[in-house]
Design brief:
By secondary structure, the chain is mainly alpha-helical. It contains 12 helices and no strands. α5 runs antiparallel to α7, α5 runs parallel beside α8 and α9 packs antiparallel against α10.
Length: about 240
């Protein structure tokens, strides 16, 4: 089947009442990531992606209305493949589980992913209206994983049930997105350790406690008295002055 035949099949599949065939989406999205890493956002076109994926141009244009939309979905595809919610780390501690999400990668792979995120940042600077879609693509897959790990820690009694895990599960993924999209730095183990040990675990341990009530009959210590019950120097001087008059 040549390219024209493929386009004819796609046209038929797109007719009313027929479901869209998603079987080729993954290959097209992988091709999008490859092209983005190679030529950047400025050099990427939907036609080039179509050629790289071996798909007809009509197939591409029918699925995505713009290259920015296609890139965002490709990045979401990449993030979903990086974290498996069905096979999360289970080390017995939340700290171990969070650090267990880190997967060492080669220098080449790290540079490739950084180029992909740089390309996404370039496109978003041109169309801020897509920021919400980018957040869903970049942050949410990891936030879901962090929430699941924190919820499990709550269930085993490791952290308080009152902990705001909805907010805290967003912290590291959001900071990671800022690091890659704005600072243009890779995500390494040192970054993750600093976030887990310096931010997340202290925040979870620092739950507010109730202020202890004073025992019945207890006399509060006033500013004019010392903690041991003796009068303060200022009050003692006042007493001596009155005794002389």
């Amino acid at each position: 089947m040549d390219q024209n035949d493929e386009e004819a099949v796609d046209v038929e599949a797109a007719q009313p009442g027929r479901k869209r065939d998603h079987s080729r989406d993954a290959k097209i999205l992988e091709a999008t990531l490859e092209v983005l890493a190679e030529v950047g956002a400025a050099g990427l076109t939907m036609d080039i992606v179509a050629a790289r994926a071996g798909a007809g141009k009509a197939t591409i244009y029918r699925r995505w209305t713009s290259k920015t939309e296609m890139v965002i979905e490709a990045v979401a595809h990449m993030k979903r493949n990086q974290v498996d919610l069905e096979r999360l780390p289970d080390t017995g501690t939340l700290r171990g589980d969070l650090l267990g999400l880190f997967k060492p990668q080669s220098i080449e792979e790290g540079e490739r992913k950084l180029k992909i995120m740089t390309g996404l940042a370039s496109l978003l600077s041109q169309d801020q209206a897509l920021a919400e879609a980018a957040n869903a693509a970049v942050v949410e897959p990891w936030a879901e994983a962090h929430f699941a790990l924190m919820q499990r820690a709550v269930e085993r009694g490791e952290i308080s049930a009152s902990a705001d895990i909805g907010t805290l599960s967003q912290v590291i993924p959001s900071m990671a997105a800022y690091r890659t999209l704005v600072q243009r730095k890779p995500i390494d183990l040192a970054f993750l350790v600093s976030m887990v040990d310096g931010v997340i675990m202290p925040a979870l341990r620092g739950q507010p406690s109730e202020v202890p009530r004073a025992p019945a009959g207890h006399r509060p210590v006033h500013a004019t008295s010392r903690a041991d019950g003796a009068p303060s120097p200022r009050r003692a001087a006042s007493v001596r002055k009155r005794s002389k008059t």
